[in-house]
Specification:
Length: about 375
């Protein structure tokens, strides 16, 4: 029975698209493999946990530089894992240059290790970092037995993946079944939110408050909307106070802060329109769009060349796509959906069908097991 070592940056219960995808891979694989995970903990001190019946080694970190976690114990714990667990297959989630620095040494020493490179996105924002780790990235791509992209569009749009098409397989990320369940208490709470905002068309958006999420354009778009609209923004981050200041005279906007899973889903279900204003390829896929599709909600997005966003949400089918960073166009898209209940229903239904066809856990599980089929003993 072959042994797999999964290497994401973080892991459950840490919230994030890459972390969720890593966990979904672990839970997708048939019992023909043994699996372990090594990652950062997100705080000081190391720990070993059991999650979903899998051993997860979490390395303490002491600092972050350019969004990259730094750890004093990672090198030692990885060395121990490579020696004692001795994996046959490594699944590495990119970008993750700090971890890759140590991993590359083991890949060079062990040419027989099957190396699966799960490429979530190019390094785009940190241009100096990208240049610094260019040789490392090229080595990982060349060394990879197989490369996985989260969407076909990202293969074409990436200057890296487009050169290795012969060994790149697209496997869209998914949401597990429990994330697609909007019944029971979720539905009851959604109805409460709708009642609290009776007579309003609800626009909902959430995510980490950082530049590439484009939330400032949603705040600016609100200025073109009437008081018939109510915009709720979940999440928090470095730009939270700046966004609040930008919206300080706009009573239509409410910042909700961090939302637990149930409250998050309730706001998605309560909304008339889901806003996803990300503006760069730092948004490699857009898992939140899948959650909106599972709730049968139409979306408004920007055009982001080379990203998976406009693959997940199709312009004119499940969403209305606007020119990048154009607040007025974004407001026009919101108004078009807001003024047309039939269009909202049609796009919402299309979104649900797209979720079932491409982004369900069952579909993801099938594709993952197909990828690993040839490595079963």
């Amino acid at each position: 029975m072959k042994k797999i070592l999964h290497i994401p940056n973080y892991y459950h219960p840490h919230i994030g698209g890459i972390e969720q995808t890593a966990r979904d891979i672990v839970n997708s694989l048939d019992k023909d493999f043994t699996e372990e995970v090594i990652c950062f903990r997100g705080e000081k001190g190391d720990s070993i946990e059991e999650i979903d019946g899998i051993k997860v080694i979490k390395c303490g970190e002491f600092k972050k530089i350019a969004s990259q976690s730094l750890s004093l114990s990672y090198k030692k714990l990885l060395k121990c894992e490579m020696k004692e667990y001795n994996p046959d297959i490594i699944v590495f989630h990119y970008p993750n240059p700090f971890l890759a620095h140590y991993l590359v040494k083991y890949l060079k020493k062990n040419p027989n290790i099957i190396f699966i490179l799960w490429w979530h996105m190019d390094i785009t924002k940190q241009k100096k970092l990208a240049k610094l780790f260019e040789r490392q990235s090229q080595y990982l791509l060349k060394r990879a037995t197989k490369i996985v992209s989260t969407s076909p569009k990202y293969i074409e749009g990436s200057k890296y993946l487009s050169k290795y098409k012969e060994k790149v397989t697209p496997i869209p990320s998914c949401i597990p079944d429990y994330r697609a369940d909007y019944s029971g208490k979720i539905l009851d709470r959604a109805n409460e939110i709708r009642k609290e905002n009776e007579g309003k068309k609800i626009v909902f958006s959430f995510g980490r408050h950082v530049e590439y999420k484009g939330l400032k354009y949603l705040v600016e778009a609100s200025k073109y909307l009437s008081d018939d609209y109510k915009i709720f923004i979940g999440g928090k981050g470095p730009l939270t106070e700046e966004l609040k200041d930008l919206a300080k005279d706009d009573s239509k906007i409410t910042f909700l802060g961090f939302l637990d899973n149930n409250e998050l889903k309730s706001y998605i279900k309560a909304s008339d329109i889901f806003a996803f204003p990300s503006i760069t390829k730092n948004e490699g896929f857009g898992l939140a769009l899948v959650e909106a599709e599972a709730a049968s909600k139409p979306a408004v997005t920007f055009t982001v060349e080379g990203s998976g966003i406009n693959y997940v949400a199709l312009d004119g089918v499940t969403a209305i796509e606007s020119p990048n960073s154009d607040s007025k166009a974004l407001s026009d898209a919101i108004l078009k959906l807001g003024n047309d209940p039939k269009l909202r229903e049609e796009m919402g239904n299309n979104g649900y069908n797209r979720y079932k066809e491409l982004f369900s856990f069952d579909k993801f599980k099938d594709l993952v097991n197909q990828l690993f089929l040839e490595y079963k003993e």
